[in-house]
Design goal:
Elements (H helix, E strand, L loop, with lengths): L1 E3 L7 E9 L3 H12 L4 E4 L16 E5 L22 E2 L22 H14 L14 H5 L10 E8 L5 H4 L1 H6 L3 E5 L2 E8 L2 E8 L5 E11 L5 H7 L20 E10 L15 E7 L1 H7 L5 E6 L8 H5 L10 E9 L8 E8 L5 E7 L6 H17 L3 E5 L4 H5 L3 E2 L30 E3 L14 H22 L1
Parallel strand pairs: 1-7, 2-3, 2-10, 3-7, 4-16, 10-19
Antiparallel strand pairs: 5-6, 6-12, 8-9, 9-10, 11-14, 11-17, 11-18, 13-14, 15-16
The structure holds flavin-adenine dinucleotide.
The site of flavin-adenine dinucleotide (FAD) has 39 residues, from α1, β5, β8, α6 and α11.
């Protein structure tokens, strides 16, 4: 059932699992637990259909790079999926593995661990395929790719698109009809009541000041990549902070358009350019190229663009491309992998929000040195396509400072409660459990230790479905 805390709130509620936050992570873990017969209380700070007063608690202070704290997330049922664009792709296999030139270790498990969960996530995100290789798209796709040999260090990959699923709207009836779910909207998680290494209860509050205590055997924080950290930092003894990592290693994907390219007009890299398939092809570096060159796992996208005066007319008359129809002007875009820097972090401001919690202070650290390996990667790619006679590339931005000055962001908040194989490198273990609490779990992209270039939501949903199985198993063992 769904009820509105503003119209009445019991003083106490009990459940097997208490989940805070009803975005994709919270909704999927709640419904997956309910399907397994577990009783869930799902606490959502926003309302049913639109942001209410509580949206303002997302505001905060900044230092470092500018960042839209308020505009990059939504506080109502379905969370930020009420605005997301629906781009989905699993992380590349290499993203799970340690890279010696990255400052912090990678995932505590390999790519095979998430494979079955990605299939579940595709279903939740309403995507009808789990294939992300160009081979799976058939011969036409193959013919219309830039013919770069794998030996150049580049390979083609596929993004797919969710409708996009608005998780609140799409799964509202399921939440409403589930006998195992008690979803309270307009109710905000504010405090954990703890003893030894366990959480006993959650205190939750409405913006009008009513309060409720929720007792459960397990607790899950699924409030988004910034709020998970802010909530933990607001607790008297900050759970998971044994290694001073709560809030640190904040990352977002960043992008820019480093060049333009003239090539065949028949390329199929643009979204929807392959008939009948809502996919987008991109190019990305192989694991060995990233490792050997101390580069990043970025992706290169091509978008059809109109001819412009940047290229001299003789380019259009060139016979370089073996008589193929010319006229293929493309804008080149890159989405880049940020590294987990400890100094890129969420701390607390001295100002309090309407619920009495200290607001976010975000210091997004994305130094100019991050752009040098990205530029080096772009140069490797332009050399490869030019040498192979596949295209002529014009660089629009040639230096790290120039790239740094023209950064676009992904609105993906990642890394602030990172998973790790050993406690000294993370906030949570491989199940998402706070290393120093027996029954407190995290869900969402705050768990991501390394992030590649893939948009995060498919991985968030895969992890949430996996978490539900884990929690259900633990509840079984208590019985
Ligand atoms: C414009 C835009 C476009 C995007 N496009 C894409 C895309 O194409 N592909 C992609 O993969 N990702 C995209 N994203 C990111 C995507 O929206 C997020 O990855 C996803 O929504 C995160 O899910 P979540 O459940 O972890 O967090 P959220 O969706 O942020 O949900 C968190 C929920 O917790 C609630 N909450 C917060 N604090 C509390 C509290 N104290 N008590 C109770 N409830 C609380 C919030 O109200 C919210 O409902 C985009 C984001 C934006 C802004």
């Amino acid at each position: 059932m769904i009820r509105d805390a503003l119209t009445g709130l019991p003083a106490e509620i009990e459940a097997d699992v208490c989940i805070c936050g009803a975005g994709p992570a919270g909704i999927v873990s709640a419904l997956e637990l309910a399907r397994r017969g577990r009783r869930v209380v799902l606490v959502e700070g926003g309302g049913l259909d639109a942001p209410g007063d509580a949206q303002s608690v997302y505001d905060g202070e900044l230092s470092g790079r500018p960042y839209p704290l308020l505009g990059s997330r939504l506080r109502w049922l379905g969370g930020t999926s009420n605005h997301w664009g629906g781009w989905v792709k699993p992380l590349d296999d290499q993203d799970f593995r340690d890279k010696p030139h990255y400052p912090m270790p990678a995932w505590p498990f390999g790519p095979e661990e998430l494979r079955p969960w990605y299939a579940e996530a595709a279903r939740w995100c309403e995507i009808d395929s789990v294939e992300y290789t160009p081979e799976s798209l058939g011969r036409e796709a193959h013919r219309r790719l830039l013919g770069l040999e794998q030996s150049t260090g580049f390979t083609n990959r596929v993004f797919r698109f969710s409708p996009p699923t608005r998780f609140g709207r799409r799964y509202r009836d399921d939440l409403e009809q589930s006998e195992n779910i008690d979803c309270l909207v307009n109710l905000n998680a504010v405090e954990l009541t703890e003893g030894e290494d366990r959480v006993h209860a959650l205190v939750a509050r409405t913006v009008s000041g009513q309060q409720c205590t929720i007792r459960a055997r397990q607790f899950v924080l699924a409030m988004g990549g910034i709020e998970n950290a802010r909530f933990l930092l607001n607790q008297a003894s900050v759970p998971g902070n044994h290694a001073d990592l709560v809030g640190r290693c904040f990352m977002d994907h960043y992008g820019f358009t480093p060049g333009k390219m003239l090539s065949s007009s028949n390329l199929a890299y643009e979204r929807g350019s392959l008939t009948g398939q809502d996919v987008m092809l991109v190019m990305s570096p192989t694991e060995s190229l990233v490792g050997e060159g101390e580069l990043r796992n970025s992706c290169i996208m091509l978008r059809a663009d109109s001819p412009d005066s940047l290229l001299a007319p003789e380019y259009w008359e060139s016979q370089l491309f073996g008589g193929e129809q010319l006229g293929g002007m493309h804008g080149i875009g890159m989405i880049n992998e940020p590294l987990p820097h400890r100094q890129s972090r969420i701390t607390l401001s001295d100002e309090r929000d309407m619920l009495g919690m200290r607001r976010t202070h975000l210091h997004w650290h994305l130094p100019k040195t991050e752009f040098e390996p990205v530029l080096a990667l772009f140069n490797r790619w332009t050399t490869a396509v030019s040498r192979a006679g596949l295209a002529r590339v014009r660089h629009l931005k040639d230096s790290a400072p120039e790239l740094s000055a023209h950064v676009g962001i992904g609105y993906h908040h990642m890394g602030t409660t990172r998973m790790s194989a050993a406690p000294e490198y993370g906030v949570s273990d491989a199940d998402g459990r706070c290393w120093d609490r027996d029954n407190l779990y995290l869900a969402g992209s705050s768990l991501f230790p390394h992030v590649g270039y893939s948009n995060p939501t498919l991985t968030i949903v895969a992890l949430a479905a996996r978490l539900a199985q884990h929690l259900s198993g633990r509840l079984e063992s208590y019985a």
